[in-house]
Each structure stands twice: as C-alpha cells, then as structure tokens.
Design goal:
It is a single chain. By secondary structure, the chain is α+β, with helices and mostly antiparallel strands. Helices cover 33% and strands 32% of the residues. The protein contains 3 helices and 4 strands; from the N terminus they run αααββββ. The chain has a 4-stranded antiparallel beta sheet, covered by helices on one side. A hairpin with a 4-residue loop joins β2 and β3. It is globular.
Length: 84
C-alpha cells in the first residue's frame, strides 16, 4: 500500500472517530437555540424535513443519533439515542 493511500485511510478513520454526535454536545442543546447555533455545534445534519414553519433534523445513524425539532429556526424539542 502506498504511503499516500495509507495517509488517506488514516484520515478517514480519524474523521469518523471525531463524530459530533456525543452526549457532551447533546448536553449543550437547549430549547430556543437558533438553527445556526445547533449546526455550529453538531455540523451539517444527516437528514432534514419539514413543512409550514416546522422542521426536524437528525444527526448520526440508526444506532446513535440526535434529533432536533424546530419551530421556525428555533429549537422546540430535541432527543438523542445511543450517545457516548
């Protein structure tokens, strides 16, 4: 394996290990937080959907995730599962 491929593989593994979907970041969420604040904390969401001024965004995967529901661009409620 070339040094370049090894470096790229190491970078990908390191990046995956640096997930922002953690108990520590979940504890920093609060009702009323602005959407840009949440995205600054958690990064770009994995999935978002919504209608009529309400939206729901999720970060993570089916085993470990944070879900945030917004009214406008403010956090209404949030939940998490499998956080470490």
């Amino acid at each position: 394996m070339s040094l370049r491929r090894l470096a790229l593989l190491s970078f990908c593994v390191l990046l995956a290990a640096c997930s922002k979907v953690t108990q520590e970041n979940y504890a920093k969420l609060s009702a009323g937080m602005a959407k840009p604040e949440v995205e600054s904390l958690l990064g770009k969401p994995t999935d978002c959907s919504g209608a009529l001024g309400m939206s729901s965004c999720t970060w993570g995967d089916k085993n470990s995730f944070i879900s945030v529901q917004y009214a406008g661009d403010k956090v209404l409620i949030f939940s998490g599962q499998g956080l470490k």
